Amino acid sequence: MLAAIPMESIQSQTVMDRVSKRFLKKNRVKKYGKRLVNMGKDPDLIDMAVRNEFEVIGFEPSWMIESGAFDDHYFNLLTTLVVGEYDINPTTGDTRSRSSYRSQFDKLRRDKTAKQEFNIIQKADFHNPTINVLMHMTYYGDYGRQAKQREYAGLLLKEGEVRKTLKDSIQSYFLELENDYGIPERRSGIVLDLQLENSFYNEDFVDFISFLRTELGDDHLIYLKIPAKVRKDALIPFDIINQIEPFVDRFIVQGYGFEKYSRTYSPLVIFDPESSYSIDGTIANYMVPGFEKIIPEKFIVELPWYGVIFKQDQDGNFLLKEGSPYITLDDFNKDIKGRSGTISYKNNNTMAYYVDNDTRTAYLIEDSLSLVSKYIYLVDSLGMNGFAVNALGYYANPDSRRGENWAAIADNFGEKREKIGWVIAYYLAAFLPIGFVYSVIRYWEVRNALAKFTKYWNRFRIFFILSLVIFMICLGFMPRYILVIVGLIIMAGFFVYIMVKKAMMRSKKYVNIVK
């Protein structure tokens, strides 16, 4: 007895099998379910970007690059990356450590998104195609004999051959960025970090900055790192700042180090409008009539992502720990937090304070809560356009997803990035309603059918409204999860249609029995 099965039944079953195999795989169900669970929660940090009105600068020194710490950085939450370092030999102008300078190019880490190995510049550019890349150029007065430091500083600022070598090295760096990594002139530059005696901030210093601007051109960025007023003779005089201002794109105030000069235990960073030895006091020194408008445009404060340790002596006083008195937030959370004390916040949450009673040790930590207070204070109270972060690698982002320090930037100064898929989608979706309108205007047959037949007019209205909704969703005027809901409804309707069709076909006599 032979049975002839109609092709419609076979086709409907084949379609059903294909759909089920495609959409009901274990990994797909898990992925889509995860997206639905996360819907409405805070967006992933990778989907965020700094808003246009703010600037966030991140420093990453060579030893952190070598450790591979940049593997977990959210470069999309930076506007400028400072990599280093080019530690200047003051007698030649060349770098003192070729390996430290080349680490930004040579150290590779596999990127999870791109699925290929990147150095820090490639990774930053891949995740943030508009990021600025600046080379950190340092001179800390630790070269050669201590007795000859004034001579070395003079050579660095005035010697012609030293200047030429330095200029050639910088231009070679810019050329490598552009030719090998596609970083154009407007996104490349240098950060000068010259820690000189106060007497060297003179006309020679002004001439040195002017020379670099002339040789490098106006298209490249020049940032200058300047000290905060941690002691009486720390500041660069205002008249020098005023003279070099036309040559400098940003002044980065090193906003930490106050603990070294305090008689009692003190945080790394001090905000105090009543004290001249604070960030407020530093900025106040440059609030000169005619210059005050430059402050919000060009001044940015650099803050740390770590803490400082104080030990209690026999008299009960807390003194700066001898040796290395600093601790990263990661190490604090892992090794110290929760022992025998609790974190408390003082001075309007600008200082996280923790005392370990068992070891008679005090910690002043920069965590996400204290940092947010500082960031907001810089922007709202001091009128700045952003801030800088010292040594991004001090925070290793332990959960590799939504680290607190990165979230502090994203939640207060970020916005969700417009993905290229949505940009393409709303351009394509715009043709749907436009096409409906065009067909009515262009073809009399369409107008006649809509006017004559009610069913066509009803269908036209439904699909026209649906096309407008899709366009507005893609454009962002309506929540995009609506598109997911609409898609699920359409899929559910499709499954129902197939099941109903199968049931109807079974109820008919579709098998011819051949005897």
Quick description:
This protein has 515 residues and is α/β, with parallel strands linked by helices. The protein has helices at residues 7-23, 26-38, 62-67, 98-106, 120-127, 149-158, 160-181, 203-216, 238-244, 279-284, 294-298, 329-336, 368-380, 404-413, 420-429, 431-442, 444-452, 454-475, 481-507, and strands at residues 2-3, 48-50, 55-60, 80-87, 109-111, 116-118, 132-139, 188-194, 221-227, 250-254, 299-304, 306-312, 318-320, 326-328, 344-346, 351-356, 361-365, 386-390, 414-416, 513-514. The protein has three domains: 2-42 and 421-514, no CATH class; 45-305 and 367-417, Alpha-Beta Barrel (TIM Barrel), CATH 3.20.20.80; 306-365.
Share in helix: 40-55%
**What structural category do the secondary elements indicate?**
alpha/beta
How much of the polypeptide forms β-strand, as a percent range? Answer: 15-25%
Mean pLDDT comes to 82
CATH 2nd-level architecture of the largest domain: Alpha-Beta Barrel
CATH homologous superfamily title of the largest domain: Glycosidases
Number of helices: 19
- CATH topology name of the largest domain, in short, is TIM Barrel
Radius of gyration, taken over Cα atoms and rounded to an integer in Å: 31 Å
Biggest sheet overview: 8 strands, parallel, barrel
What is the CATH class of the largest domain?
Alpha Beta
What global shape is seen?
Answer: elongated
Q: What strand order characterises the main sheet?
A: 3-4-7-8-9-10-11-18
Instruction: Give the domain tally.
Output: 3
InterPro entries: GH
Keywords: Membrane, Transmembrane, Transmembrane helix
Transmembrane segments: 420-441, 462-478, 484-500
